[in-house]
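Review form for a predicted model. The reviewer records the input and the model, then writes brief findings.
Reviewer: anonymous (R2)
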Amino acid sequence: MSRWWGSTGGRNLTEVIKQLLEHPQLATVVISMLPVVELRGGLPFGLSQGLSPLAAYVWSVLGNLVPVVPVFVVLRWGSAAMRKFGWSSKLLAWIERRVARRRHVVDRYGVVGVVLLVAIPLPVTGAWTGTLVSVLLFLRLRQTLPAISLGVGIAGIIVLLVSLGVLGSIHFFVGM
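Model under review:
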């Protein structure tokens, strides 16, 4: 078995992806690290690859948390520099507009608002957005990381229950 993380050595992207998919835990982590997809895509993927519910939950939560500190640091220290260049200034402005749509929750509830924002497993409400909102609100990393971790954990439980059909079953019986 060759190393998946090594140089592609002439291999194409399809071969690299096939090799990654041979390791469902790692693939679940990588998918959960992606913006927009995050844990909402990683956890169901892990389940679909035969991981136990607990394993899929743990790997997807860990994967979703991996980018938090680097994104926080880059945005905190790099936002001033980004504003000086055309393309990055436009990217930062786009991100700020997207984050501003959810800012009212955090403004009203503070750090608890970050938890609530991240815990809702909908598009544009995950760890990446929670990190961006935290930077825009000048929250410290020691406030941000626990809040986002708790929010990701709650979102993971919701996504797991939905993926397993538990919430659908409850709705079926309550709605009768």
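Findings: Residues 68-163 form one domain.
Further findings: The radius of gyration is 18 Å.
Recommendation: see findings above.
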